[in-house]
Design brief:
Blueprint lengths: L3 E5 L4 H11 L4 E5 L15 H16 L3 E10 L20 H15 L5 E11 L6 E11 L15 E3 L11 H5 L3 H13 L3
Parallel strand pairs: 1-2, 1-3
Antiparallel strand pairs: 3-4, 4-5, 5-6
Helix pairs in contact: 1-5
This protein binds inosinic acid.
Length: about 200
């Protein structure tokens, strides 16, 4: 298998590590926007697809390499899909996901919501020089638990317990999470399409 360099248009260390591990077996060496010192464009779109496309296109124009960008987030059913595309922004500046998780819990409590179902969703955009952007989607359904549990993962992982499991993403190893996660599912679809024999 050949070796190709792709760029992941992200500065999020958690995502970079997950994607690197998944793509390595396919001969893709992933450089991140952080490695290449690329600017982070503002996420000005109103959909996961829009934001993923904007980040992939900007990185592809800057590097001339195939660029991946993902836009992902937590969508809580009783909150009308919030925080959704605002998942990172709910953590404030500097990012504090303790605060973001507390806000999810507080808003569910304020609503007296008994429905605690949620999903992590991920849209990946792949921009190759001179080609149209292609999209791949993945999601995983689960429940919001409180209090947060587990030191692993990142972001909202400690309050998300995938359906059919008794541990949160925060309590799972990277390998266990990779078998289930929205990002892994979106990547699997991409791999099936882009690396078919
Ligand atoms: P993005 O970088 O704009 O895609 O922001 C995604 C945000 O959604 C992250 O900063 C996290 O807050 C949240 N998020 C996305 N994927 C995950 C995950 O796998 N675990 C926990 N939080 C996630």
């Amino acid at each position: 298998m050949g070796h190709e360099t792709w760029v992941l248009a992200s500065h999020n260390a958690g995502k970079i590590k997950e994607m690197e591990q998944i793509l390595a077996p396919f001969g893709v060496a992933l450089k991140s926007a952080r490695d290449l010192d690329l600017p982070e464009p503002d996420e000005t779109e109103t959909t996961f697809r829009g934001n993923a496309a904007l980040k992939a296109r900007a990185a592809c124009e800057a590097t001339g390499l195939p660029c991946l960008a993902d836009d992902s987030g937590l969508s809580v059913d009783a909150l009308g899909g919030a925080p959704g595309i605002y998942s990172a922004r709910w953590a404030g500046e500097p990012r504090d996901f303790g605060r973001a998780m507390q806000r999810v819990q507080d808003e569910l409590a304020d609503k007296g919501a008994s429905d605690r179902t949620a999903r992590f969703v991920c849209t990946i955009a792949l921009a190759r020089p001179g080609q149209e952007i292609v999209f791949f989607e993945g999601e995983v359904a689960g429940d919001i638990v409180w209090p947060p549990r587990g030191p692993e993962g990142f972001g909202y992982d400690p309050i998300f317990q995938p359906h059919g499991h008794v541990r949160t993403f925060g309590e799972m190893t990277a390998t266990e999470k990779r078998a289930l996660s929205h990002r892994a599912r979106a990547l699997d679809t991409m791999i099936a399409t882009e690396f078919k024999p």
